[in-house]
Amino acid sequence: MKNILVPIGTSSNTINTLQYAIDFAKFFDSKIYLMQAFTFINKAGSIANVEDVVAKNTTEQLEEVLNKVDKKGVSVTITAYNGEVLDGIKAVDQQYGIDLLIMEPRSTDIREEVFLGKTTGKIVKQTNIPTLIVPEGNTFKDYNTGLVAFKSGIVKHPTILDPLVVFKERFKLNLNLLLVKTPNYVTEDLEIDDKLKSLSEEVQTSENTTTFEGVLEHFQEHNPDILIVFRRKRGFFTKLWEKNIILKREFRCSIPLLILSVKK
Fold first, then answer.
1. Is the Cβ–Cβ distance between 215 and 245 less than 8 Å?
2. Inter-axis angle of helices 50-66 and 14-28, to 10 degrees?
3. What is the pTM of this model?
4. How far apart are CA 4 and CA 66, in angstroms?
5. Does residue 85 sit in helix, strand or coil?
6. Which among 151, 212, 154 is positioned nearest to 182, based on CA atoms?
7. pLDDT for 47
8. What whole-number distance in Å separates Cα of residue 218 and Cα of residue 233?
9. Do 238 and 246 meet the contact criterion of CB atoms below 8 Å apart?
10. Are 58 and 80 a contacting pair, CB within 8 Å?
11. How many C-beta atoms lie closer than 10 Å to residue 183's C-beta?
12. What are the distances in angstroms from CA 38 to CA 4, 45, 130, 141, 244?
């Protein structure tokens, strides 16, 4: 977890999210890259340096945000990107090698029924970088217990579990594995990867319509500090990936949510 990217928008919760990321980075001795994307299309006849002006204004806004948090000695690099936020994330990743994204669930969507807003949902859906979603109201603290929820024990890519291994070792995290048998499961799904199985002393099995229902059923029993799920085909968000916005009635989480992805 050497390089952490925090993409921000105009949300009123931006300061809290950034402070959480800084506290997290302090714990891991990581560097933070703070990014905001802006869109400027250079049209014929426009003033040549307008893009530079917009970029400068965006950078100044990021500096204002940064001045409102306690940096705690953490290295924070500011970057303003002209273009779509997803392209900006890919550009920063290519340049620095990002190990983790830290974001809030909603960026600009203020509707109460929304858990993942359009921008956040799109990022989570289309990036292969492990992502930590931090709901509003959370402050960073050591994670003591974690719940790993999944509908298939198959792990095709050996690196997908690396962030979880790091979390377990650094936090001395007690992990509980929850295999949720949904109606469309196949026999192979019940064969849990050895590396995944080794992260916990036991595996609990539940039969539910969706993985989220399984989480709700067992959440109070485990009372985790962090929820871990997989972003992959036939993973936790299988049907939810059909759109970017995810409503609270489909999924919600009040604690930090680590979404494991294949980092290539």
1. no
2. 70
3. 0.85
4. 15
5. helix
6. 151
7. 54
8. 23
9. no
10. yes
11. 8
12. 20, 21, 24, 32, 20
For 91-185, where are the E strands, in sequence order? Answer: 100-103, 114-116, 131-133, 145-150, 174-181
Please give the single-letter amino acid code of residue 198. S
Q: State residue 226 phi and psi, 5-degree precision.
A: -150, 140
Q: How far is CA 49 from CA 38, 39, 79, in A?
A: 15, 14, 18
Q: 158-202 pLDDT, tens per residue?
A: 789 999 999 999 999 999 999 999 888 889 989 999 999 999 988
Q: Show Cβ contacts of residue 150 under 8 Å, excluding neighbours closer than 6 positions.
A: 177, 178, 179, 180, 211, 229, 230, 235, 236
Counting every residue, how long is the chain? 264
Whole-angstrom distance, CA of residue 36 vs CA of residue 55: 10
Which secondary-structure segment (H or E) carries 13? none
Q: What 3-state class would DSSP assign to 207?
A: strand
pLDDT digits (tens, 9 = 90+) for 190-213: 999 999 999 998 899 999 888 778
